[in-house]
């Protein structure tokens, strides 16, 4: 029983956590400019909506971010340069 709990706790950091973001721009991964940016970062095999120049939405930012650029993304591991697997949201 102890090992099953330890395994669950060890796996928690591996779960993707979506974050609500305000991005400078968003677009499909197949868009030529976004595809070139992804390639320059060595990021391959990406589909769907990509956020570019994203930061977390704060209470102060609510209402100041253009609605076309508010997304929630599950892959935010690229230092804010790009966020992957995004879905548009209304804030």
From TrEMBL:
GO terms for cellular component: fungal-type cell wall. It is found in: Secreted, Cell wall. It comes from the Eukaryota. SMART domains: HYDRO. Its main location: secreted. Residues 1-18 form the signal peptide. Pfam families: Hydrophobin. GO terms for molecular function: structural constituent of cell wall. Belongs to the fungal hydrophobin family. This is Hydrophobin. It comes from Polyporus arcularius HHB13444. The lineage of its organism: Eukaryota, Fungi, Dikarya, Basidiomycota, Agaricomycotina.
